[in-house]
Amino acid sequence: MTLTMQNRVRNRLLHRFPRDAFKRLAPFLEPVDLPVNQPLVRPNRPIEHICFIESGLASMVADSTDGKSVEIRHVGREGMTGYPVVLGVDRTPNSTFIQVRGHGLQVATENFLPILDHPDARQLLLRYVHTCELQLAHSALAAAKFNMHQRLARWLLMCHDRVDGNDLPLTHDFLALMLGVRRAGVTDELHILEGMHAIKATRGNVRILDRNALIEIAGGCYGVPEQEYQRLIEDPETVREFNHHGSIDFQPVHQGSDGPIAGIGNDAADRQAGERDRP
After folding, report:
1. Residue 87 CA from chain centroid, whole number
2. Which residues partner with 201 through β-bridges?
3. DSSP state of 88
4. What is the spatial distance between Cα 258 and Cα 254, in angstroms, rounded to a whole number?
5. Which residue has better confidence, 272 or 261?
6. N or C: which end of the chain has fewer CB within 10 A?
7. Angle CA 239–105–70, to nearest 5
8. Closest Cα partner for 267 from 82, 30, 15?
């Protein structure tokens, strides 16, 4: 992999790497296929690889000691798997595996860790970890303070942010894992969103019909982590301003009919607009 190829990298985090840091990492990046159920991080075992997802969707899952499981966050082309190593942690009780097949760029942890000695790359990665923790916090907020169809709308929006096209190949089992409910509960909630003309659910697939309707349904439980990702990862001017002055004047992008929340949702809205414009 060469510096020229950094411009063709689809992973948004890797694309934002400082060029000299990417040049150091590039010889160790290996293209990998990511089939459904491929484990990327195994619970309580050393994190052996970091994967920068180029397409597809991974799920991070928390498991209780008595066998209960719930999905706690998604990873797509906005980020990387195995991020605890950035914090000096070599393993985690959580697991990460592929839910929607795709491909990525993988690097052995031992070859990744020296990149943390690069100040700008380390700062970028720590900012990414911050957005991960914020997503976890808002998952807890959604579970505690929002109703089920709002939570489902949020999860679907986050999937849509990370998966190409408006068709999300999501099974009822996966949706149940996302929401922490039984399959029958998933069916009921999907019917609610279908009644609002936001989605069309078929076996093993959810088609996004109206993204802005989903944003409205999700309400306050979607958008804050996406804005923070935009501020810290996608907007280099913001990062430079912070570095030079220690503070920023950030004007948040509001939800509305003109498009999505700032950040990783922009591509999803553009895709849906394109679908609507087709004859």
Report:
1. 19
2. 206
3. T
4. 10
5. 272
6. C
7. 80
8. 15
pLDDT tens digits along 246-256: 433 333 333 33
Inter-helix orientation angle 148-162/211-218, to 10°: 140
Q: Which residue has the tokens 């894992």?
A: 177
CA 53 to chain centre: 10
3-state secondary structure of 278: coil
Question: For residues 6 and 49, what is the distance between their CA atoms, to the nearest angstrom?
Answer: 20
Backbone angles phi, psi at 75, to 5 degrees: -135, 125
Other CB atoms closer than 10 Å to residue 188's CB: what's the count?
Answer: 13
| Residue type at position 184 | A
Residue 124 structure tokens: 């970028």
Q: What is the pLDDT of residues 189-236, one digit of tens each?
A: 999 999 999 999 999 999 999 999 999 999 999 999 999 999 999 985
Cβ pair 199, 208 in contact under 8 A: yes
pLDDT reported for residue 246: 40
Helix, strand or coil, per DSSP, at residue 26? helix
At 171 the three-state DSSP class reads coil
For residue 66, what are its two tokens? 């008595």
**Residue 189 C-beta-side C-alpha neighbours within 13 Å:** 26
Question: Would you say 99 and 36 are in contact if contact means Cβ atoms under 8 Å apart?
Answer: yes
Question: Please, what sign has the CA dihedral across residues 168, 180, 210, 232?
Answer: negative
Which spans in the chain are helix H? 3-6, 12-15, 19-25, 109-112, 119-145, 148-162, 172-179, 183-195, 211-218, 224-229, 236-245, 266-277
Structure tokens at 24: 């150091």
Q: What percent of the chain has pLDDT over 90?
A: 70
Helix, strand, coil fractions of the chain, as percent rounded to 5: 50, 20, 30
Give 263 or 209, the one with higher predicted confidence.
209
* Cα separation, 276 vs 266, whole angstroms: 16
